[in-house]
Amino acid sequence: MGGKRKKRTKIIKPKPKLPKTFECPRCGRIAISIEIKEGIAKIKCGNCGLYTEIEVPPVYDEANAYGKFIDLYLDGKLDIKESNNENQEEDNNESSELHTST
Ligand SMILES: [Zn+2]
């Protein structure tokens, strides 16, 4: 018998990452998203553009990181960066000079 390898169909399930959002201590909106990578939690507010990174233990999940973030924020120990707004803002092109004089 030839070594016919049974092909195992790999089903790669893309994990439906539920975007966990938390309340922003600055603007009060539930717009904080947290991404933890290699011990660094990247915290970003989709509303006001608050952005910061904090170190978290590997066991931390987003909720833990958020708790630490809030503590640091309230203590004023946080190094807040502003994320450049990459939000797709509806920019109404208000051209006030529509009057074309001929
Ligand atoms: Zn905010």
TrEMBL record:
Pfam families: Zn_ribbon_Elf1. Residues 81-102 are annotated as: Disordered. It comes from the Archaea. Keywords: Elongation factor, Protein biosynthesis, Zinc. One of its GO terms (biological process) is transcription elongation by RNA polymerase II. GO terms for molecular function: translation elongation factor activity. Coiled coil: none annotated. The keyword Zinc applies. NCBIfam families: PRK14892.1. This is Transcription elongation factor.
